[in-house]
Write a structure and sequence with these properties.
Helix content: 25-40%
Distance between the termini: 21 Å
Number of strands: 8
Largest sheet: 8 strands, mixed
Radius of gyration: 17 Å
CATH superfamily: Vaccinia Virus protein VP39
CATH topology: Rossmann fold
CATH architecture: 3-Layer(aba) Sandwich
Order of helices and strands: HHHHEHEHEEHEHHEHEHE
Number of helices: 11
Shape: globular
Number of domains: 1
Structural class: alpha/beta
């Protein structure tokens, strides 16, 4: 379990929000992690699926995997995309659930929410609703969602047990869960975890893979890892690749259900 002190949490959230404001506002900028359409293709998105959504959605993509490999979304589902960013996964979800379904795009970064709203209008979809908030306090009722989809977000969340409990709360009984996230082979030191600036680097907030699965299970979410990816091999930063390799940082894609 990750220990987070309350006086650090607000600074962690700010560091993360600042980083992803930059990704939203400057999509052509080079970051230490893969971004944009090329990043989508690198982690496994089919080009044909990306062609169904506005280019402005994929240009600020900062996910770490392809959660739709789980093939869990059905027509008419109510879907929550946690950390929806500029809308890549939320808008793809809208094509899978169809007009009879609903997609909530939850994000705490205003620049990403503004971009999501513009992309919703550009795509002309009526079943996607942006929500302001974060994974630790989801602004939805109990048992209101069929599927939760998450891509590269939970490693950035300070209080993971609380976030996992919130996911379980909003899922309907038997609700489904698809996650792409960063996990580790070697734990990060508590000194590194205590530095808010390092959280936006996508590594120090991650936990060891077995612990990740165990924490989800404790929250009542039964998951299995269906694939892994050497995500940081796609980084242009030699320092990032070195740190990630030292910790065994990698993407895991998980499929799960609320038990």
């Amino acid at each position: 379990m990750v220990a987070i002190f309350s006086d650090k949490k607000e600074f962690i959230f700010k560091a993360v929000a600042d980083m992803y404001t930059d990704v939203a506002s400057n999509p052509d900028k080079t970051f230490h992690f893969p971004t944009g359409r090329l990043a989508c293709l690198f982690v496994g998105y089919p080009a044909s699926q990306l062609d169904e959504i506005p280019a402005a959605a994929a240009e600020s993509f900062a996910g770490v995997g392809y959660p739709f490999a789980t093939n869990l979304i059905r027509e008419g589902d109510v879907i929550l995309d946690i950390g929806s960013g500029s809308g890549t996964d939320a808008l793809i979800s809208s094509t899978l659930t169809g007009p009879s379904g609903k997609v909530y795009g939850l994000d705490m970064t205003q620049a990403m929410l503004d971009k999501l709203r513009k992309n919703i209008v550009s795509m002309g979809v009526k079943n996607v609703e942006p929500l302001e908030g974060n994974a630790e306090e989801i602004p939805l009722p109990d048992a209101s969602v069929d599927v939760v989809t998450i891509n590269g977000v939970l490693n950035l969340v300070p209080d993971k047990p609380r976030a996992f409990a919130e996911i379980a709360r909003v899922l309907k009984p038997g609700g489904r869960l698809q996650i792409s996230d960063i996990s580790l082979a070697t734990p990060v030191s508590e000194a590194s975890r205590a530095d808010p600036k390092l959280w936006s680097e996508c590594v120090v907030g991650a936990v060891v893979e077995d612990n990740y699965v165990t924490m989800l299970g404790t929250a009542g979410l039964d998951v299995e890892v269906i694939s892994r990816l050497d995500y940081f091999s796609g980084s242009v930063s030699a320092d990032t690749r070195r740190v990630a390799q030292g910790l065994g940082a990698h993407t895991i894609v998980m499929s799960g259900r609320k038990s």
